[in-house]
Each structure stands twice: as C-alpha cells, then as structure tokens.
C-alpha cells in the first residue's frame, strides 16, 4: 500500500498517493486546472506555466504538473491573479506564434487555440514579435514549422524517452531556442524513423505530416487514371472519432462508402494484404523452425520499426521477416495481379493508401519498393489527411450507408483486422502457423496473453506439444529494451529464448500510429484496440488461410506461400543505416534469401 | 591537445560533457567546435548526437562557427548598460567592421556580447579572451584594438 497524503484543493479535502502531483490531486478533487505542455502519458517538463496554482504559505504560484503534494497543503486552483497569469502566458506565446489558424493542419485540434479561446485571450493584446524561421521540409514524412512551435518540449520527450530515437532536441536559447536536429541538418537527414509520434503529441501545428492530399485529388479528378485505394486495419477504428463517434467505434462499411463518394475507382482493403502477410510470414516462421533458420523471427509490418532496426540494430536484420508490410504487398499486387485481372495498363493505375502512419510515406518511397515495375504505392494519406479530404467533400461519416469493398483484394478475416492493435500480428500468425504445422485448426482463437497495453508482453504457446516462447513490444523504447535482451542472449548463448517477436513502432500499435488523430492518449489507443478485437470476434472467418480471396490469389497468381513469385513480389531486404544521418550504408540481407 | 587526448583525459562519464567541449574548443586555434567534434564526443559518451548539439548551442561560451584569434565579449548586463555599454558596442562594430557574433575578415577579432563578468566597479567592461578591460571609452577602445592588431602580426 502506497503512503497516502491528505490535502485541500479549493477547500475540498482529498487523499492521494504520496508521490502524486498537485495536478493529479486536483483531478481527483474535481477541480479543473488548464494545462498546455502537460500530457498524461509523458513526464512533465513544466515548460509553459499555464497550470500554476496558489499554495497557502508559498510566496509565489507553483506549477501544479510538477509540484508534489504534501500533508495538509492548501491549494487554490482559480483566482483573479491566476487567471491573469494564465492569460499573460498564452498572450506571450501568441505574440511569438504564427497565428494562421484557418489554414493550419491543427485547426480545431490545437491545444493553444482552444486554451486561448477558453481563457478569452486577446490576440492583439501584445505586438507580434515572431521572427520567421525556415520550415524543415527535408523529410518525406514529417514537416516541422518552428513558427508554430511553443517549445513545450513534448516532441523531444516523445522522441527521446518514449521512442529512444533522439532525433530532435531543443537547441539554442532564449528567443533563438528551437526544436532542431543535429547541426540543423533536418529530419530527413537524421536518425528520425518517421514514426510521427511527435505529430500526435504536438499541441499545435508545428509538427505535421507532409501532405499528399493535393496529389490524390489530382489523381481522382484525372479521367485517365484508375485510382485504387487500400485502408489499413486500424483506420476503421479511429475514423469515427473525428466525426463525433465514440472512441473505438468500428466504421468499416461507412469508410468504403466515403472512399467511393470521394471518387476512388476501386475500393480494396489493406486487410486483404494483412491476411496475405500472415500466409507468407507464418510460412516463413514454420520454415525457419523446421530448417533451423534464424530465430526469433521478428515481424516487419511497421516501417518506423524497420528504419529503427536498420539504424540501431542492423545486426539483427537477418532475424527480421523478409515479408514486405501489407501496404507494400498490396501496392505491388495492385499493379500486377489486379492490373492483369482487370485488364488495365498498370501505368494508368494510381495506388493510394490510407494509413495510420507517417512512416508509410517513407516506406512507399524506398527505392527498392518498385517490384511491379512502377513505384508500388504512389500516395500515402494519414488518417488525419483522409479526414480533411472527407470534410472538404462535405461528407459526414455518420450519415453514410454501410458498403462492401471490391472483392478481389478487399475480402478479409478477423486475423487481418487485429493487425491494427499491438499483439495482433502475433495472434493472427499463430492462428495460421498452428494450422500449417499441425494441419489442424486452433480451437481457442483468442491469444489474450499478447493483447493489451503492457509495453512488453510474453507468452508461451503450446503448438501440439511444441512449446514456443513469443514476445510482443510496442513503442520503440520497449522494442529497444526487448531487443537489447535478445541481442545479449544471442551473443552469449548463440540463441534467444524467443521463437517469434512482434514489434510495432508506436505505443498501442497502429491504432496509436503517428498518422492517427492528434491528441491520442494511451487510454484512447487501448479503446481503439478493443474495437478491433470486437470486430475480429464478430467476423465469420478469423483465420487468414480461410479467406477466399487469399485462396484465389495463391491458386491463380502466387502458387504457394514462399514461392518464387511471392519472393519476387512480396518479400524485401534491409539496409544498415548511419545512426547520425539515417542514410543507407550497405544492404545487410538479400532480397531472395529463399530458405527452401 | 588533440580531440582524442581530451576524450581519453576525461573518460566516458556523461558528467564530463561540458569539460570535454571546453577543452576541445580551447585546443582549436579558431576557438570553435566542429561538427566532427560533436559527433565524436556524442559517440564517446554514448549520448544522442542531437543532445550534444543542444548543449553546445545552449551555452554562449561555445561556438559552432570559426572565431577570430581574439574574442571580444562586451558585457551587456544592467550596470555596464547604464554606464554606456551600447556606445562601446557601436564603437566596436564601427572600428572592426563586423556585427555582433561576426568575425573580421582577417580572422583576428570576433565580437560577442556577454552577461555580467563581475567587474561592475569598472563598468563598462569587456573581455578579450581571458583578459578583462574596464572603464572603457571610445579612445580606449581604439587603443586596445590597435594594440591587439599589432600583437597578432
């Protein structure tokens, strides 16, 4: 039992754990304290000062986010002078801010905007002193606009503590202070893995995805193009939020309808490719187990994780599955399999993906991702960009009917849906690997040990008497911890205790992706994940190998998992990257490393 | 001292970051830290590159650009300001032909500002490298600059 402390918030007695902050206590007491730099999932920096409170006996106000409680403390959360302080802080921030709300990507999602609005701050209260700094547009995934930065430090905390990438820091001081990369070389020339968590946590529009909306509209409005679209598993669990639906609502049918209203010619689903990934990856796992190939097999769906691995763990590259991510498998097939089946010249096909992810933009542009003879995926939109397109077309998701995807590459099973939550790929792969090894179907499909928000999850699975130890990590800090352990085991004993590991770059998996709605908290990510598990449970088919569209593509096109065609189109190789600039040094695995 | 010698002198403890940066900068005749320096220090101490960059740019005593043989630091704290530091700065800008933070073409002088150097009794004051000059006037400035210029030849 933790030691408890009693204190008074606005005259109300409240009891909290000894190491709580005043802000925690105020929440418990039901007193609202406005905050700006504070975020429930990050350690407080105390940078902004908006959350100040008065403490009896203290000569000056204190920041409640980082002031610990003490026995008998008497706290006032609202007073004339506190209101003045808060207003002045916001006014000072606005005087050094590029106030272009109407066109800002963070409009209506901006915490500075709403705080200024709630506090009734006059934007003309102080003269503007903004000195324009250049935008960082070096990255294909993320754009950094220092003119909208309020130096709250959340992005730096996320990048260093949560993701252990440390691509950015606060450089210089005073008015010159700026969030910056090493020697101002830009995110595109840094160790940034494009995960985009900074864009989710940024309270303003200072960090956002590099938008591809205009390119997609151009393609949609070009009568000579056939625009094919895929949507990642997690999108169906986050789209609804942006239209006022409850967090975690699955809106898959309305999503298809919305895409058709926007003018996409063919509406498929990344879930199809997720099922296909499972076929290839489970096959790879079974092959490696049988032939004594490199174990643990580590998943490869998350492009933020892949660049992280190439940068910080290139020695583990041979353990990583050679499978392309579902997005890239889909992209290649959209310009080969689909083009053939539909009798369309692949040069006319524009392949678009709707992703929870900013790293997918980078992945689509990796030079090796052209196995169809074209850039396999042309444009990648984040959930946020997709929502903007829907709003610009006057579409309200809630009002749309439920529609079905186009079948050839649109049908999917529950195994594909759970790809969007941490542990989902592992669970889906186990369902199919069990069948591949034993020839029998797994009875209890719910591998609950690998579900949920714990940073690192472990389980021992029993596949017909064969004991297999697996692990799941999400968030790159957790990935680093797990893989450091694996690396050590391999160095010391020649092998790891795990046979199979799933890694997702973002906390919560794709439902918590860097392209998801701004302001996603861990609690929201967990609810979105539950939404996906509920959809899985409700579907008639829950094993990837039962998907009729998957059976068909193997019959007509790919032959069998791990075949020559599969290896040519659906598998890839990895590089070793410079940990300073992120540039490639050399390839460390081979593309056609076919073990059989 | 070479960079390697500095690194070896201090060992791998992260607490030594500032000392290491100072020593490396001091061993450079142009009084600055190169990109290579920051890279090697980050590797040595196993700190993120961006972090070392953040530290090196936060402290005004470090420079990432080559500086002159003599670094002139004019105190801009309240006492010196009241005693006419702004005129001293104008005088220096004029006679050196450079702005604040810049280095003369002949690479002899770099003009910088500093917060209080603790000699308020002789304000306005400035430092040239580690030497303090107080009770500054226009005439005194011209004389000091001339002298230093001669010394450097």
Task: Please provide a brief summary of the model.
The complex is a heterodimer of chains A (596) and B (153). Chain A is an alpha/beta fold and 596 residues long. Chain A is built from 19 helices and 19 strands.
Secondary structure: elements and pairs:
The complex is a heterodimer of chains A (596) and B (153).
Chain A (H helix, E strand, L loop, with lengths): L3 E6 L2 E6 L4 H8 L22 E4 L6 E2 L10 E3 L3 H16 L15 H9 L22 E3 L9 H9 L6 E3 L6 E3 L16 H5 L5 E3 L3 H8 L5 E6 L20 H11 L3 E2 L2 H22 L5 E2 L4 H10 L13 H9 L2 H6 L6 E7 L3 H6 L14 E4 H10 L21 H4 L6 H15 L17 E8 L2 E9 L1 H18 L6 E5 L17 H17 L9 H11 L5 H7 L4 E3 L6 E4 L9
Parallel strand pairs in A: 1-5, 10-11, 10-13, 12-17, 13-14, 16-17
Antiparallel strand pairs in A: 1-2, 3-4, 3-5, 6-9, 7-8, 15-16, 18-19
Helix pairs in contact in A: 2-3, 8-10, 8-15
Chain B lengths: L2 H8 L6 H11 L7 H11 L3 H10 L11 E6 L2 H5 L2 H12 L12 E6 L11 E3 L2 E3 L4 H14 L2
Parallel strand pairs in B: 1-2
Antiparallel strand pairs in B: 1-3, 3-4
Molecular structure report:
The complex is a heterodimer of chains A (596) and B (153). Chain A has 596 residues and is of the alpha/beta class. Helix content of chain A is 34%, strand content 14%. Chain A has three domains: 4-78, Ubiquitin-like (UB roll); 92-209, Alpha-Beta Plaits (2-Layer Sandwich); 214-587, Rossmann fold. Chain A is built from 19 helices and 19 strands. In chain A, the strands form six sheets. Chain A has a five-stranded mixed beta sheet, sandwiched between helices. The mean pLDDT of chain A is 96. Chain B is α+β, with helices and mostly antiparallel strands and 153 residues long. Chain B has two domains: 3-58; 70-151, Glutaredoxin (3-Layer(aba) Sandwich), CATH 3.40.30. Helix content of chain B is 46%, strand content 12%. The longest helix of chain B is centred in the last third of the chain and has 14 residues, at 138-151. Chain B starts with a helix and ends with a helix. The model of chain B has no long low-confidence stretch (mean pLDDT 95). Chains A and B meet through strand 7 of A and helix 3 and helix 4 of B.
């Amino acid at each position: 039992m933790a030691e408890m402390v009693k204190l008074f918030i606005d005259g109300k007695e409240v009891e909290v754990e000894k190491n709580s902050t005043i802000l925690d206590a105020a929440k418990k007491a039901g007193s609202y304290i406005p905050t700006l730099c504070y975020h429930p999932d990050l350690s407080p920096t105390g940078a902004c000062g908006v959350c100040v409170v008065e403490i009896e006996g203290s000569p000056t106000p204190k920041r409640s986010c980082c002031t610990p409680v003490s026995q008998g403390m008497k706290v006032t959360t609202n007073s004339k002078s506190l209101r003045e302080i808060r207003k002045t802080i916001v006014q000072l921030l606005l005087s050094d801010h590029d106030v272009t709300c109407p066109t800002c990507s963070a409009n209506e999602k901006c915490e500075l905007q709403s705080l200024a609005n709630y506090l009734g701050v006059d934007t003309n209260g102080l003269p503007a002193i903004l000195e324009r700094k250049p935008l960082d547009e070096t990255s294909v995934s993320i754009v950094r606009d220092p003119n909208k930065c309020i130096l709250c430090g959340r992005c730096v905390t996320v990048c260093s503590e949560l993701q252990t990438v440390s691509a950015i820091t606060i450089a210089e001081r005073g008015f010159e202070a700026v969030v910056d990369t090493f020697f101002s070389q830009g995110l595109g020339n840094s160790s940034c893995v494009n995960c985009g968590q900074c864009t989710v946590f940024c309270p303003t529009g200072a960090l956002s995805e590099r938008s591809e909306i205009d390119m997609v509209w151009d393609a949609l409005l070009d009568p000579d193009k056939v625009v094919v679209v895929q949507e990642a598993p997690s999108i169906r669990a986050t789209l609804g939020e942006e239209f006022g639906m409850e967090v975690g609502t699955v809106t898959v049918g309305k999503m298809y309808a919305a895409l058709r209203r926007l003018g996409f010619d063919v509406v498929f689903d990344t879930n199809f490719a997720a099922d296909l990934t499972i076929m290839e990856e489970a096959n790879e796992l079974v092959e490696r187990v049988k032939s004594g190939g490199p174990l643990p097999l580590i998943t490869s769906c998350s492009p933020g994780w892949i660049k992280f691995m190439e940068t910080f763990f290139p020695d583990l590259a041979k353990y990583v599955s050679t499978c392309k991510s579902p997005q890239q498998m889909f992209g290649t097939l959209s310009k080969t399999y689909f083009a053939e089946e539909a009798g369309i010249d692949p040069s006319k096909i524009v392949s678009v993906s709707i992703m929870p992810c900013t790293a997918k933009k980078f992945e689509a542009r990796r030079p090796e991702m052209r196995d169809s003879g074209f850039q396999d995926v042309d444009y990648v939109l984040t959930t946020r960009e997709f929502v903007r397109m829907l709003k610009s077309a006057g579409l309200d998701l809630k009002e749309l009917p439920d529609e079905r995807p186009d079948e050839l590459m649109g049908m999917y099973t529950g195994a594909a849906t759970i790809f969007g939550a941490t542990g989902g790929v592992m669970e889906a792969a186990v369902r199919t690997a069990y069948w591949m090894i034993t020839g029998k179907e797994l009875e209890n499909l719910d591998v609950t040990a690998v579900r949920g928000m714990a940073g690192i999850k472990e389980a021992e699975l029993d596949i017909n008497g064969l004991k297999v130890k697996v692990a799941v990590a999400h968030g790159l800090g957790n990935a680093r911890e797990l893989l450091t352990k694996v690396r050590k085991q391999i160095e010391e004993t020649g092998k790891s205790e795990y046979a199979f590991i799933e890694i997702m770059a973002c906390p919560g998996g794709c439902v918590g992706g860097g392209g998801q709605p701004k302001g996603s908290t861990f609690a929201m990510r967990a609810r979105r994940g539950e939404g996906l598990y509920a959809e899985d449970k409700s579907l008639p088919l829950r094993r990837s190998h039962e998907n009729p569209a998957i059976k068909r593509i193997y019959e007509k096109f790919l032959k069998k998992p791990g075949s020559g065609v599969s290896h040519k189109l659906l598998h890839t190789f990895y590089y070793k990257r410079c940990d300073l600039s992120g540039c490639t040094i050399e390839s460390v695995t081979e593309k056609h490393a076919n073990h059989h | 001292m070479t960079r390697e010698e500095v690194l070896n002198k201090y060992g791998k403890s992260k607490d030594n970051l500032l000392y290491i940066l100072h020593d490396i900068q001091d061993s450079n005749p142009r009084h600055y830290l190169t990109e290579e320096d920051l890279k090697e220090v980050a590797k040595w101490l196993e700190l993120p590159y961006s972090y070392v960059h953040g530290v090196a740019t936060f402290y005004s005593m470090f420079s990432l650009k080559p500086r002159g043989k003599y670094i002139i630091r004019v105190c801009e704290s309240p006492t010196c300001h009241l005693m006419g530091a702004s005129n001293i700065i104008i005088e220096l800008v004029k006679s050196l032909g450079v702005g604040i933070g810049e280095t003369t073409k002949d690479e002899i002088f770099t003009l910088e500002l500093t917060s209080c150097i603790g000699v308020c009794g002789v304000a306005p004051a400035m430092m040239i490298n580690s030497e303090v000059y107080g009770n500054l006037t226009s005439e005194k400035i011209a004389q000091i600059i001339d002298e230093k210029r001669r010394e450097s030849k």
